[in-house]
Every structure is written in C-alpha cells, then in structure tokens.
## 1
Amino acid sequence: MKILVVGKGGREHAIVWKLAQSDKVNKIYAAPGNVGMAEQAEIVPIEVEDLDGLANFAARNGIDLTVVGPELPLTLGIVDIFESKGLRIFGPNKEAAEIEGSKAFAKDFMQKHHIPTARFKVFESHFEALDFVRTAGFPLVIKADGLAAGKGAVIVNNPDEAKATVENIMVERVFGEAGSRLVVEDFLEGEEVTVMAFTDGERVAPMISAQDHKRIGDGDTGPNTGGMGAYAPTNIVTENLMKQIVEEILEPTVNGLAAMGRIYTGVLYTGLIITDRGPKVLEYNCRFGDPETQVVLPLLDSDLVEIFSDIIEGYLNVKEIKWKDASSVCVVLASRGYPASSEKGIPIEGLENCESDNCVVFHAGTARGSGKYITAGGRVVGVTSVDSTMKGALERAYECVDRISFDGMQFRRDIGRKVRNLSNSFL
Ligand code: GLY
C-alpha cells in the first residue's frame, strides 16, 4: 500500500513510525511532514489546510490510504472531499468532527445523550456572558466555542478574571472566529486522563489510557501548552473504570452521533476527569491526541494499517486489537519562550545518540541547517521510551533526554510523577 499521512508534529511522526512497521506498506508520504519523518516517509510540501491539493496528490500518486493527524483538515471536511473523489481516507467527516469543532455542539450533545460532563451555559452575546459571570460561583471554566490550538479553555477564580477572559475571547477575539460563542462550565475536581478509541461508527475499541502534562512547568505550574509529555498506561483507569468509560461515555457518544446521522469513524479522543462521582468528559477531540499518541502507539501490538483499513471497510474487529504488556513515557523538549513564542534555528546536539530498541525520538519542530538538526518550533521533539515497567520507561526516557541539548531547551522533570506517587506496585 501507498499511504499519505497529513500533519507535521510528533503525533504524525509516531503514526508514520508505527505504519512503517507494517508489511502491508510499500511507501509512506507525509504532507507537510517534518525532517524527522524523512527516514520513513517522503516529504511532500502541501499544507494541512490545502484540502484540494492533498486530494489531487492522493489521486495522482495512487495513494491507497490517507491518514489525517490534526483537527483542522477534519473540521474543514477533508474526509468528505476525499470520499467524493473515491479516495480512501481515515477519520471522521465534517459533521462528525464538529464534536471537536464546536464546544457548544459537544456540550449540547452530551446533555441530550446523558453523557456525564460539567454543568454549562452557552453564550452568543458577550453582554449576557458578562452578566452571568458577575454573580456566578467560582472557579469556573470559560471556553471559546471553536478551535483554539488547545489554548481556548481558561480557569477563572473571580469575577475580574472572568470578565477579562470573556472580553479577550468574545470582544478582542484572541482566538478569532472561535470566540464568537462561549461555553461557561463548572470547574470539576479530579484526576485528568485521556482515553482514545478506534471506532467504525458502531463498534468501539478503547486504547490504553494515557495522561498528558499540559502546563509548561513541573508540578503543573505556568501556562498551558500543547502538552509537555505523557505516559501510558495510567493506573487511574482500572479495568472496571475502563468498562464504565466505554459503557457510559464512548459507546453512547458513537451511538448518539449515529442517531443524529453523523456516523463517526476514526479515532475518538475523550479528555476525562475522574471525579468522586465518576468519569466526566472535559473535551472531545476528533483525532489522535498529541503527545498521547507518542506513548500509546508504541504499546500497540497489532498492525495499525489493518485497523485503519477495517474501519474504512466498516467492520472493526475489536477482539483482534492487541496491546503490549509494557509502559511508555514521552518527555517533550521545547524551545526557549514556548508557549508564548519560540526561538528557531538553534542547533540540536545529541539526537543521534538516542535511537535504540527502547527509545525513539519523535520530531515536531525541527529542521535541517548546515548539515545539522536545528529547532524550528515550540515543541521540538518528544523522547519516548518503552519498558516492561513504568520505572524502567521513566529512567530510559530521562537518560535519553540528558543526551540531547540545545540552547534554551525546556522540559519537565516530573513526567509520570503522579503515577509514581499513586502506587508503588505499579512500578
Ligand atoms: N493532548 C491534548 C490534545 O491532543 O488535544
């Protein structure tokens, strides 16, 4: 098969890396890709929002399967365009992807289908939103309705912070049109986890649970980022809890969307909070998570091409999906200034010292300059390791991190600390 992977981050590098292990694959292209993928894929300079460009490329080059990493092309309708041209593509169509594209749609949907989530209100007028937050109880979470690169949810602790946030989103439009509507919801206490699932629109196969680390600093301090690291599996999602998540969240979501005529196929991402009243949905995403994919796919024992193909053909063989009995850790290395800005063009030392059977470096913001790897974005690489124990995976990941350096390199030293604190037996 010839496969096209759309996207350019660590998530897409992990997808390319996993696909390259399949004996069904002859050739992989990545658009626009990154230099780290070049070993496994031919890089094609087409941006992710150039839907016609991507479809024309797939048609001209006889691509058998296209896999879409980021949410933007999915919410713009890349799947609809490819399918209208008879091209095989993995991911939800535009209507199904609205589960991520509009927070207001997702919240209304959950309420209608009794899927556990925080209480909320949707506002289309900033006057009404301001009126509401003046007298509300705190803390609250304020979310821009549309896509905001993971930065559109703000926790506010008092009326002044709430007023400033409503004005930033709805008046200043810091997230553009994404801020034309607003969701205000209760802040929930609990541990956050990610559960992604493969689905053909009817059957659901949950992946191993993972935990992201959103804040830039150790101990969950500082501003939110795209994600500074992850580990999998979590000891938070026990077998019983996973059963509950499947029965109360994943299956009702897929069935509810199907009942609306929005058949959801692809990867359904749920960002969950485990409260003392059970798991609740904080957010849906219509694609693989990043960096979670960098720890979950290395634990997948089955052939990813077969899973994608089965879903496209309409029958996901849930029982055939097998996972390794191992643990995985990813530590993201970021540029100075991230997440507000990022320095570029800084030489990266030591990447070549990291590749081994148990450690892999997924590239995100890297480029080549004067024959060397240089930085080219905020999140530069994700260092992932796999081991039979979580302790081993953590040690290997940080050993590898210590071999890499670039001026201004930022990373968290506490990825997986919660898992260490939660249970010694897990290690
Ligand atoms: N890790 C969060 C996301 O993928 O949106």
## 2
Amino acid sequence: MKKIAVLGSTGSIGTQTLEVVRANSDIKVVSLAAGSNIQLLEKQIREFKPVIACVFNEEKAKELKERVADLSVKIVSGMDGLVETAIVEEAEIVVTAVVGMIGIRPTIAAMEAGKDIALANKETLVTAGHIIMPLSKSKQVKILPVDSEHSAIFQCLNGEDKREIQRILLTASGGPFRGKTREEMRSIRVEDALKHPNWAMGRKITIDSSTMVNKGLEVMEAKWLFGVEFEDVEVVVQPQSIIHSMVEFSDGAVMAQMGTPDMKLPIQYALYYPHRRHLDGKRLDFSALSQITFEAPDMVNFPGLRLAYEVGKTGGSAPTVFNAANEMAVSLFLNKKIGYLDITDIIEQAVEEITLIKNPTLKEILDTEQATYEFIKGRWSD
Ligand code: NDP
Ligand code: MG
C-alpha cells in the first residue's frame, strides 16, 4: 500500500490527485491540507479517512474540528499544522499542490523527514531550488514532477544519460491572448483572462498562463529539475497542447511526450514512477487530428517570459522577487485593484527595486518575499 499526503487537496491538482487515488486500490491518503475550504475538506476527510488534516485558517480549523468530532482525525492549523501534515510518519510521498511560496517550508520539512515529493507547487522550486535540489541529493529523496511539461521531459529522459541533453524544448499553448499586442491586451478583464483554451486549472495559474509568467516559472523549474543552463531551455509555442514537451539529445534525436491534456496522467506517473498503469480518459486520435503547429514565443508582448529568463540568469533572490511580485500582482488583478498589464509592470519594477541577495538562506527568501510585498503595497494597493 502506497501512503501519500496531499497538501492543497481542495484545489485543481489536489482534487485530481484524489481522483487518481479513487481509481486505484493500492494507495492510501494519510494526510490532507487546505487553506480555508472546510466544506470540501470535510467531505474528503469522511471519504479518505486521513490520520491528520490541516486548515491553514485558524477559525475555519476550529469549525472543522467541531464538524468532524465524531471521527478520530487530528485537525491542525497554520504553518505549524501544514508542516505537521507534510511530515506525518505514515506518508511516503507528499503531493505538494498548494499554490504559491507557502509551499516552501512544508516541502523542505517533508524532504528532511525523508519523504519523496510529487511536486506541483513550482513556486517552491523557483524560489528555493538552490536549497531543494541539494537537499534531495543529501536526503536521497525523489522530486517527481507533476507539472505536465516537466513530467513530459522526465518521461523523455527515461533510460537516458542526462549529460547527453542538448536542449529542453518546453512547450507552451501561448494562452488565450496569443497573437495579441500589449495595446490590445490593455482592457482585458478578469473573466477574459480566466478562460484557458486547453486546460482547466486554479485561478492563479490560469492568469499566469495568460501572461506567460507560468512558462517563465516553468523555465526556472526545468533548470532546477534537470540541471541544465537557461541557454539550453527553449520555449516552443504549440497551441494545441498535444506535445507536452520534448528533449533534444547530442546526436540530434528529439523525444516528445504526447497525449490529450489531462493532469491525471502526470499525477499518476509521479505517484507510481517508474511504473505505468491504466488511466481512464480520452486518447489521442491521430486520424482526427488535423494539425500540430509550432511558433516562437512572443517575448515583446509577453514580457513576463523575457523577465523570467533574466531573473533566472541573475539567480540568488531575483527569482523570489519575480515570483512574489507576480503572486501579489495576480491577487490584486483578481480582486480588480489593478489592470491586466500592471501585472508584468509590477514584476519588472519590483525586480529592479529589491536588493539582490546572492545565495539566500530560507529566512532571506522569506524576507525577500515580504520586502517585495511591502514595495508593491506602498505603490499599488490601498
Ligand atoms: P488551486 O488554487 O486550484 O488550489 C490551491 C490549493 O492550495 C487549494 O487546496 C487551497 O485550499 C490550498 N491552499 C491555498 N493556500 C493555502 C495555505 N495557506 N495552506 C494550505 N493550503 C492552501 O491551485 P492549483 O491546483 O491550480 O495549483 C496548485 C499548484 O500546482 C500551483 O503551484 C500551480 O502552479 C501548480 N500546477 C497546477 C496545474 C493545474 O493544472 N492546476 C498544472 C501544473 C502545476 P482552499 O481551497 O481551501 O483555498
Ligand atoms: Mg505546466
């Protein structure tokens, strides 16, 4: 029996992880964590019977405790609670599906406790990759990618020698505003940006996909996961989202992983790696597929991707500023406090403004996050 912890169980990746669990009888959920959605969390607790569950919001945690008083589950809250659910003794794999940098501490704690990580929470790797990757080596724990592109690359690398990687070809759909100029994007509303052409995801990553900041975060994620240089990660726009990413090797061979867009595939692959097993769902029908097309990404109208390469190459705390500025700007946009183009403007200004720390400790990463929030608060929010 495989035992897993699911952090962010009420979200898009979290609920799809639980669908994979439902379809397999040899996997058990031992802990769950959410931010505040106790309605759904209570249902999940009753169905999956974990030993412990965390609600980050303290008030909501109290309410949940009363609601599940008839069960033996332990209810915890806050950052300490989130860490406790990540290091619960029974768990072998921790699925990190919380959104944002909040995932750093529980991920590090889980690794220190010897757990393998099924990583969806890319913000953690972007900001603390220089801590996470060496830790995975010293603790001999696996980082199994859940992000579809990185899972595709991971699958293409099966049985290969990483030293023979020439280029990583990270595919992108281009999002709902592909082909538009910045001027045309000025009046985009929240409702427009929340419509992704191929994937149904959480709100924050849907906005990130539309600005191509998501692809920028994924470039940095790829650098850490596969130990390559930024020059060797090329973004290829493939609007139909059929090729989930590719690897070019030193002899010129290119391996691609294809499939219909379904996050359950990379989730299941991470949970059962190196084994494959049946997954219900639509299959690619090549006779019905009219075309797979390719374009270069537009870094002029989508400056988020250009900035990501820049902060990635700068390194140190620069990716943290990029990421924290994006998290806050997206939240301001979703709350209709700023315009659409302000998102990347805010990132650019924060990156210019906040002091660079070369090799930040965990505390310095979290301090940089706060400094970035303070900088933005002072200028853009009430
Ligand atoms: P969602 O917004 O759908 O879900 C986020 C989850 O995190 C929810 O369960 C939420 O709980 C929980 N959460 C939020 N804040 C806290 C907190 N402080 N403590 C504990 N739990 C918290 O996000 P997604 O599932 O879309 O994304 C999750 C991660 O996976 C992100 O890093 C994203 O980039 C990555 N990812 C997502 C993909 C997708 O297809 N969705 C694809 C590839 C990567 P609550 O519901 O209570 O708010
Ligand atoms: Mg992705």
